[in-house]
Amino acid sequence: MGDFNFPTINWRQGESGAGLDHPVTKFLNATKDAFLIQHQTVPTRYREGEKSNILDLVFSNAEDLVQDITVAPAIGKSDHFTLLVNLNCKRSLVRKESRLNFHKADFNKIREDLQAVDWNKELGEKPIEDM
């Protein structure tokens, strides 16, 4: 989103009349190469006696990400209208699996506890499956 100041781009047609090495054409090609969609189609800059232009652009990588754009009056003495952009954002909750943090384990205490057990008495003559 922003003021890109490329008034010669025809965003409805996705073309410019500039030559291949012109910054306007390079910018337009870069947006196409990045698979960006330009959602703003209404002129947002107006000066008396001049042609109105689409200079304030809203790009996304998904057609349905921008729900709608409202063009509101300019703020202060700006010659750019204000854009109110409603985004279609969905938040998905990702449940994090709990995992043990072995770095916090007291391995010395674990060894002491295991050594304190009389394993012959505990396991005795039990079959392997029961042990």
Write the layout of secondary structure elements.
Blueprint: E1 2-3, E2 9-10, E3 15-16, H1 23-33, E4 37-38, E5 56-57, E6 59-60, E7 66-72, E8 82-87, H2 107-115, H3 119-123
Antiparallel strand pairs: 1-5, 2-3, 4-6, 7-8
Give the gist of this structure.
With 131 residues, the protein is α+β, with helices and mostly antiparallel strands. It has a domain at 2-87.
Strand order of the largest sheet: 1-5
Radius of gyration: 32 Å
User: Main sheet, how many strands, which sense, barrel?
Assistant: 2 strands, antiparallel
Report the mean per-residue pLDDT as an integer: 85
Number of distinct beta strands = 8
Low-confidence stretches: none
Q: Helices and strands: which structural class?
A: alpha+beta
H and E order? EEEHEEEEEHH
What is the distance, rounded to the nearest whole angstrom, between the alpha carbons of the first and last residues? 66 Å
- β-strand percent reads 15-25%
Helix content: 10-25%
Number of DSSP helices?
Answer: 3
Shape: rod-shaped
